[in-house]
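Q: Focus on the chain.
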Amino acid sequence: MNRRTFVNLTATTISLLPMQGFARFTTAPAKPAWLLDWIKINDKGFPNYAPLKVTTGPYAGGYLNDMEMPNPHSTSGYLMKSCMLFGTPESAYYQAKNLLPDIEAAAQAMLRFQHPDGTIDLLETNFHSTPDTAFVLENIIPAYRFLLDSKAKGTEKALDLLRTFLKNAGESLVVGGIHTPNHRWVVSAALTKLNELFPDPRYIRRIDQWLAEHIDIDPDGQFNEKSTNSYSPIVDRSLIIMARGLKRPDLLEPVRRNLLMTLYYVHPNGEVVTEASNRQDKGTVGNMSRYYYCYRFMALQDNNGEMAALCRLIEQTCPKEQLAGYLDYFLEDPTLWRELPGSKPLPTNYAKAFPYSGVVRIRRGNWDSTLLSNNATWLTFHKGNAVLQGMRVAASFFGKGQFQTTKIEQQGDSWVMRQSLEGPYYQPIATDKIDPEGDWDKMPRTARPQSEIQKLTYTVTVTETGNGLRIDLDIAGTDGVPVALELIFRPGGTLAGVTAHPKKDKAYLLAGESGTYTVGTDVVRFGPGRAEHKGVQLRGALPAMDAPTVYLTGYTPFRHRLELG
């Protein structure tokens, strides 16, 4: 299990605790049916850890990742899962004494993974890593609490081992550094939870140091990394932990703003827009399961019908197994078992700009589109499960003709993107700047007069039609420059009305009036076509994606109107 998988699926274990700390009730309310179902799902999946157990060597008792490396992330995941089920009365593993030797062995392995400074390694990239130690604590802290609250005999040794790991980790978190914006809040959330277990003024001082830098949320409501399929929900969860544990309700405001913005980042099929991310989830396919806790918490906190409706959409569009991966959050806080507020309509009919993110979102019922600046993939179009995952255009203009706009401007009912390029030639350098050894690098182009300057201007105008979009492309300046427009579809559907390229796999030409891409009952229609040449991989253009791609080709001046619907 790599950290990304850990972050996406199991770094969910400490943000549901009440403001006053870990939930304790004199008489616990009855667990709702959906929660009991999640417990059964976790019971069913728990045996999957058995083949991953390390039985020999220095890390015996630990667990392997998908590269068969013993590592603290997989091992901490086992500890959280085993201790959670051990402490849950409805689980088939409730107080199963045969689990205790494995729990103890895994806790001992965690101490062997831990460096003297309290940190652990993320074997894929980070070593002696404070942030990754904080991510691991998102499993170890609830493991400790579940085991402690079980009050079961025979847990003393495991608790002592886990307590040692936690206190050692705390020593690293009060001094260690970070890499990325979200790491500040993951570390601070871990310190918040450690302080609930083992109060220490150093923990609070370190949190205050990070908070002094302010929360990195822009006027659009997006966090700095714009990582909708990974780190934004992690930041939301971390801030909720801090708001509750530190009694700082003001820290819920950025959560609220981010979640309200994200309502406009949901595709009709329940997926989340990822193309504007600055992180490794850019352009990935992901659903909204990672946000479920955040929306449920804030829907109940604010009595917000839109957020409640989004929770219900998540329940309808995400596999139960994914949601059940967050069981520990909900077992820790029975206040979340309450019924959600009544639903209010979600935004499904809008055209909305997010200028700080360089995004325009258009949605009309069962189709939506995303326009993007500072991105070579400047348009996507979803119609149910039929997805045009990217539109790109390039010209073979001096090896730099891949179109990318720096801003999206609204002009009436249209959205306009532009780019201007120049391709100069260079004259002999001035006599007094000639290098006596003839070293070309010491006679740079920047020091030479330019001549025969060629120019190329792109203007892309996107306008809504009755059932989709009209894209007008105008590429002009230097004449006779080859152009290729790419329509890149998500694999899994069927193309019609196009011709397979004679030399390129997964490449098709559209010469006729229209083409279609069909997935189930969902159909994207596009056209008319244009196929004046077969140069689909132009010099200076980005490599073709590993996906079915339809090309429209021509030469400058290239003026073409394409309809999508």
Remarks:
- The radius of gyration is 28 Å.
